[in-house]
Amino acid sequence: MSEHARLRELLPLYVLGALEGSDECDVVCAHLATGCPECAVELAEHARVAAAMPEVLAPIAPRATVRAALEKKLADAPKVVAMHTPAIRRAETRLSWVWVALPTAAAAAAIIAAVNLNEQLRWEKNRHWEDAKEITDLSVEMAALQKEIAKNDALANALATGDAQVIALGPAAAGQTGTGHVIWNKKDRTWTLLASGMKPLDKDQVYELWFIKNGADPRSAIRFEPDAKGVVRQTIAVPADMPQIDLAAVTLEPKKNDDPKPSSTLVIAGKTTG
To answer: N or C: which end of the chain has fewer CB within 10 A?
Structure first.
């Protein structure tokens, strides 16, 4: 049997105070002081059971000779009987278990320590779980930021090397708002739409970006919704069969719309310059 298993077998006796003054008591106390969570939980359970035993065990009737001797003493002291009989009867049924319900000072201290340790362990577990969740959330946020930085670096590199063309966008009609740019990376064949000042949408509306060649043949690039500040950033691939694009336009469309052509509500637009 391992030393730890032997110590666990001593825990019920320790709770009952049966080890007080012995070497085993010192060994158990020393082990509990190490903060062993397994023994702390088991000790608390033994203490709970011990405290409940006087309530669940049936009283044991004394032997006839003991009862006769007790009745004789009570008969010899009638005044004492009148004053103290209830207390004597209560002691008769419960006195033998007082040592069970009331552990020694050392055992009581150990029980309190075990309960406190169990609560501390639970608190530490919750704290570590919250820390792990926060680290995970920060990692996800950092990955998203790194992705955005990589996109910005790609755009900056395309502009620096002359592989990108910038198309300025502005309001296409009276009453419309919003400005922005489309960065056309001809090497990677992508468009990056950067816009701000876009009006909030109704729940059944959506914005749509279009490729237009020679004033005709509009191709839907992407449908999008701006954020709460009216800002949008979207990157999409330019169709392979459209080597030349003359116009970039954003229209206001109903969300439920199967029409492959843009509506007449032109919001912002801009022409390419070569």
So the answer is: C
Q: 23-33 vs 37-56: helix axis angle to the nearest 10?
A: 120
DSSP 213: E
Give the chain's length.
Answer: 274
Residue 169 near residue 248, CB atoms below 8 Å: yes
178 Cβ contact list (under 8 Å, min separation 6)? 169, 171, 195, 196, 197, 198, 199, 230, 250, 267, 268
Are the CB atoms for 206 and 225 separated by under 8 Å?
yes
**Residues 141, 51: Cα–Cα separation, whole Å:** 52
Residue-wise pLDDT tens digits, 60-77 = 666 677 667 767 766 766
Q: What is the pLDDT of residue 96?
A: 42
Q: Which residues 6+ apart lie within 8 Å of 108 measured at CB?
A: none
First-residue to last-residue Cα distance in the chain? 87
Alpha helices (runs of H) in 95-186, residue ranges in sequence order: 98-101, 105-161
DSSP 96: G
Mean pLDDT over 246-266 rounds to: 85
Is-contact 220 237, C-beta < 8 A?
Answer: no
Domain ranges of the chain: 3-56+104-130, 164-271
